[in-house]
Amino acid sequence: MTPDSRKQLRKQLRTARRSLSRAAQQRASLQLVRRLSQSRLLLRSQHLAFYLAADGEIDPALLLAHCRRLRKTCYLPVLHRWPATGMGFQRLLPQQRWTRNRYGIREPLANRKLQVKPWRLDLVLMPLVGFDDAGNRLGMGGGFYDRTFAYRHRRQNWQKPVLLGLAHACQKTASLPVASWDVPVDGIVSDREQLLLRPGLQRS
Ligand SMILES: Nc1nc2c(c(=O)[nH]1)N(C=O)[C@@H](CNc1ccc(C(=O)N[C@@H](CCC(=O)O)C(=O)O)cc1)CN2
Ligand SMILES: Nc1ncnc2c1ncn2[C@@H]1O[C@H](COP(=O)(O)OP(=O)(O)OP(=O)(O)O)[C@@H](O)[C@H]1O
């Protein structure tokens, strides 16, 4: 797949998710809570990274609210200031102050003291633009998640964190090409299915 066709596919999948009705979005968000709130994966995780849905992404907000009620420590991605290309995960505060990143996505006002090393997290919910049955993923194209978790290339079987991609079922494609820098996810959950790819990640 050429960079151009990757770009085309990304555009097409982003349009598909943005075209979902509000009702379909709400149903999908509820499905996420149903699938994940009682899962061992969630129950066992104390430090969890979320995202604030944008651009028609499946919305984990209900799940985030659930986790905060359970007193789990929840984090959101914060982009390092341009031209830096890094991304941190910052702990959410009860009285959070907000800003917008360079793409217009709301994020916590940066405070490095509240950011953790990615390997300290137990579970990272990653927004996907596209995915296939093998667990290959297509993101927004910034490479932020790939760079943050690149350390996984150097050592197989990192226990932490579990990377769980979230997407609408309509974002599934036949097969995605893998780039050398792509960090595979350990599982993918959509409103219709859950693929657990890492051996040892248990169902239910
Ligand atoms: N909700 C959410 N938050 C997130 C991400 C995400 O995918 N979803 N990210 C995941 O990485 C990071 C932000 N990454 C992003 C990367 C590209 C674009 C984007 O809209 N790119 C433009 C091109 C802009 C340009 O070239 O300057 C585009 O595709 O139109 C948005 C977010 C951190 N926060
Ligand atoms: N480990 C890395 N080191 C340096 N650059 C990287 C790394 N990983 C990815 N990149 C760069 O990021 C760019 C975007 O990669 P890609 O198209 O795979 O994004 P993506 O997977 O859709 O985005 P994301 O990881 O944010 O979800 C690529 O041009 C690539 O060169």
UniProtKB/TrEMBL annotation:
Family annotation (Pfam families): 5-FTHF_cyc-lig
Keyword GTP-binding: no
GO molecular function: 5-formyltetrahydrofolate cyclo-ligase activity; ATP binding; metal ion binding
Keyword vocabulary terms for this entry: ATP-binding, Ligase, Magnesium, Metal-binding, Nucleotide-binding
Cofactor: Mg(2+)
GO terms for biological process, alphabetical: folic acid-containing compound biosynthetic process; tetrahydrofolate interconversion
Domain of life, source organism: Bacteria
Its EC number(s): 6.3.3.2
Enzyme class: ligase
Residues that bind ATP: 6-10, 137-145
Entry's family note: Belongs to the 5-formyltetrahydrofolate cyclo-ligase family.
Designated name of the protein: 5-formyltetrahydrofolate cyclo-ligase
Species this chain originates from: Halopseudomonas sabulinigri
